[in-house]
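Final report, closing paragraph on structural work. Over the funding period we assembled a curated collection of sequence-structure pairs, and we close with a single example.
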Amino acid sequence: MTLCGNTTIIWAVCTHTSLRTPMYFFLCNLSLIEICYTTTVIPLMLSNIFGAQRPIPLAGCAAQMFVFCTLGGTDCFLLAAMAYDRYVAICHPLHYTLIMTQKRCIKLMLTSLGLALFLVLQLTVVIFTLPFCGHRLEINHFFCDAPPVLRLACSDTRVQQAVLFVVGVFVLTVPFVLISISYIFIANTILRIRSAEGRRKAFSTCSSHLCVVLLQYGCGTLVYMRPRSSTSEDEDLELALVYTFGTPLLNPSFIPYGIRISKMH
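Its predicted structure, as stored:
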């Protein structure tokens, strides 16, 4: 369902010239990220569920963590860029095409990817310089994520935990604050709309984005930024299922948002 829904978005945007607008540019890139995001994790997980039980080498574990966290970080930054797009569309509709130019959209996309690559590279290098005990290690997780891998280390991990927290602040807290500020301005603008129908339509354009934001940032914050003493492996596993499977599946629900915004313009 995730692959079909997100592939449909990419196909629709690429084949319909009327959809080549900033909002659909971000939707298309978000769908591509979600496809790569899920295929980084799910195939190996399914093979283990169906009995293959293939061990992953340490280098493969590092590669999976790097790719997954980079795509997840890009996803978080891109959601903030989409909130900015929404802010301009609702608060400054007459200047929308002047502000959200193709050049600016590409810059926002490349900046999101570049920041995620830089931050996650530092995290991956710091984690996999740790010594790990034993020849065959097992993590209580369905992919190589930072918290369960850190639990396997044989030495003190306070430096790595601090790096993970700092990366979490840049990837989760900062974009969420920017999104919150955008929605404060959006809510202020919507509340000034006189007609109830106009307010309802404006609010409805934000619902899908807000659902994904709350799931992505809420679960990510609980997994990566809580003190290790207050978390359990089972809790991290359950939360990871939500942002690994839930948010990519919700992405196709953005399509009604784009159609409504287009009609508002």
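Residues 256-265 have pLDDT under 50 and may be disordered. The chain has eleven helices and no strands. We thank the funder for supporting this effort.
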